[in-house]
Design goal:
Layout (H helix, E strand, L loop, with lengths): L1 H22 L11 E2 L10 E6 L2 E5 L2 E2 L2 E5 L4 E3 L8 E6 L15 E5 L6 E4 L1 E5 L2 E8 L7 E5 L5 H12 L4 E8 L5 E7 L12 E7 L5 H14 L5 H6 E6 L6 H4 L27 H14 L7 E5 L7 E6 L11 H11 L9 E2 L10 H9 L2 E7 L6 H19 L5
Parallel strand pairs: 3-7, 15-16, 15-17, 17-20, 18-19
Antiparallel strand pairs: 1-6, 2-3, 4-5, 6-12, 7-11, 8-9, 8-12, 10-11, 13-14, 14-16, 18-20
Helix pairs in contact: 3-9, 7-9
């Protein structure tokens, strides 16, 4: 009996020792082979150099046709991240100009599941006489990690969300073209097909994001969609038709493209106010404009167009070129400005202002639609430093509510 008890005690002690030993095992540090630049969140042509323990230098490749611009810093840690912190450095141009086009804007985010994103702001450091943008990540709690700009949205994740929205009877998903690499470009339409207002008596709004890396603008639209498909958005669906091209540059997330597509064309400088033409436009921009032109001849022609962007700063900045309905069928644009101000209880918006006919650029989406069709054209900028996804989603909800309050009082 004594021997048996003593044997059991030895086994228990051994088990405790093994548990203690396993809890003190240090994770193997990250190596170059753990990283991928060609996954859902990619940066074409990027290279990685190990500088020290969990410390790396990324060299980014220039985008097509613009040697001064690089692809953006995005990557996937395929394995071995758990238990490791991480520091990523990027060289800064000697002039300090063009920093936003040199790999990272205000911040990046990381996630283990592409649902809960954690922001990492950029910092500037100097080492051996050189300046670097540095991104310092905390110790990871999972082995596989996704990293991208702002609050990123991969093409695959975007399509999955759109197909989830499509399950709602008030949403319809349309494939409107293909990208250079053959990815489908989608437009999601939200409206109540059984609502009491006939199609020809509904207002119609068209939203599109041109610059891929401005992910917060894409999430702003998703915030609108979620509100419009909710119970609270019922009246919005009955009186309006809402069209969303959440991603125009669908090759961008996997390549790290910012402003340009794979042809090297700036996606917001590739509108044709004379009419769409594949020879003169970026391939994807042509597909979206051609679809917009078809919508203009439908029974519910477009009332407002929205070019959705971000730039540095914590507030959303919206500009408008008023169309003929403002001040006639509906109120002046200042009334919409005041409605947004009343709904903006969190201080996320700069006051809406009018550009009128000032600085018209027929090749830019921000004013090309105004030149071509005379519709009310909005350029929605800013919000590039809103680091929490739920806050960006809320800005979309505010815009949807404001448009309904402004236009929903009457019919076209």
């Amino acid at each position: 009996m004594f021997v048996k008890k003593n044997y059991q005690s030895v086994l228990i002690a051994a088990a405790i020792w093994v548990c203690q030993l396993s809890s003190t095992v240090v994770a193997a540090e990250l190596n170059v082979s753990d990283f991928s630049f060609d996954g859902e969140y990619g940066s074409a042509g990027a290279s990685l150099e190990k500088l020290g323990s969990n410390h790396f230098l990324i060299r980014l490749k220039s985008v097509p046709e613009f040697p001064a611009w690089t692809n953006m810093v995005q990557f996937v840690i395929k394995s071995n991240a758990k238990g490791n912190p991480l520091q990523i450095d990027l060289e800064v141009p000697p002039s300090g100009k063009g920093l936003n086009e040199k790999g990272v804007r205000g911040f990046v985010s990381w996630s283990a599941n592409q649902e809960h994103w954690n922001p990492i702001p950029r910092t500037l450091i100097e080492r051996d006489g050189k300046k670097y943008v540095s991104l310092v990540f905390p110790e990871f709690t999972h082995d596989k990690i996704y990293v991208g700009g702002e609050v990123p949205l991969s093409y695959d994740r975007c399509v999955a969300l759109l197909k989830e929205f499509q399950l709602d009877p008030n949403a319809e998903l349309h494939e409107i073209g293909k990208s250079v690499e053959g990815r489908a470009i989608y437009r999601l339409t939200v409206t109540d097909p059984a609502g009491p207002v006939p199609a020809e008596k509904r207002w119609a709004h068209h939203f599109v994001n041109q610059h891929c890396y401005e992910y917060n603008a894409q999430w702003r639209m998703i915030g609108m969609i979620r509100y419009l498909l909710s119970e609270a958005g019922a009246e919005c669906r009955q009186q309006h038709v809402w069209h969303f091209v959440v991603q125009m540059n669908v090759d961008g997330p996997a390549s790290g493209l910012g402003r340009v597509n794979l042809q090297g064309r700036d996606m917001n400088r590739s509108y044709s106010a004379k009419g769409s033409g594949v020879e003169n436009q970026a391939y994807e921009s042509f597909a979206v404009q051609r679809d917009l032109e078809r919508l203009m001849t439908s029974e519910t022609p477009i009332t407002t167009t929205w070019s959705m962007h971000t730039w540095d700063g914590p507030v959303v900045e919206t500009m408008v070129r008023p169309g003929s309905e403002m001040g006639s069928k509906v109120g002046e644009w200042k009334e919409l400005r005041d409605i947004i101000g009343e709904l903006d209880t969190k201080g996320q918006f700069k006051k809406l202002y009018s550009l009128g006919d000032k600085g018209l650029t027929p090749k830019a989406w921000c004013s090309g639609t105004y030149v071509q069709f005379g519709v009310t054209a909005f350029c929605c900028e800013g919000g590039g430093h809103i680091m929490r996804l739920e806050q960006t989603l809320h800005t979309g909800e505010v815009l949807a509510k404001a448009l309904h309050q402004f236009y929903g009082k009457t019919t076209p």
